[in-house]
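It would be a great kindness if you could assist me with a short task in structural biology. The matter concerns a single protein, recorded as an amino acid sequence and a row of backbone structure tokens. The record follows directly beneath this note:
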Amino acid sequence: MKTALVTGGAKGIGLAISKELVVLGWNVVITGRDATAIDSAVAGLSIGPGKAVGKIMDVRDRSSIDSVIAEIRNEFTSLDSLINCAGVIIRDESEVLSEADWNTVIDTDLSGVFKCSQAAFADLERSKGATIVNVGSIAGSVGIAGRAGYTAAKAGLEGLTRTLGLEWANRDIRVNAVAPGWTRTEMVAGGIKDGRLSEAALTARIPQQRLAEPSEIAKVVLFLMSADSSYITGQTITVDGGITINGNT
């Protein structure tokens, strides 16, 4: 049975990915900083032949990551895939965005991905046909006002994906990313609830006229983890209902 580590796996897209993997028979290690959310997610994942376990981990802290990787090594026979889904967003205009808020987003959404990937490398290298899938955003390729840290992190994530894909191709580790558009997650729902986002305005700009469901992003992640994508590495697949080709995000 294969094992996947899903950072940020207790909510939204990460949880959708975890559900798909459990149904397919994977062991899934869900990590995050919210113990209550992790416990709730794990309790809801008794839905298939796979096993879900939860662990507290801060992707900004290399010692925290190393500890969880060691636990996975002890509890399971292998680590076969790393899904870097943990992320935060802080909305503020660039002229007033604090250094602390900038650092929080960069440290989580970009540096955290590098730290997790580097920490998992030795275990992934021992697994035949290992994969890393990074969950980015269309914000990595377009400008979005009030999201300086987030757009910078997601643009950097695409560059990191290309470089790791290049460096680790001959180590039998494929590294790819997905770039979701507007998706019905807790993060987007929170923005709609407090009035920072308008669902009607968002869907009006999306050619498919709706938000994505987390399960739709998860399906693309599973494709990039599977043998069906065996000749794909260093790539970012955009999953956005056509909003970026519409030229009006």
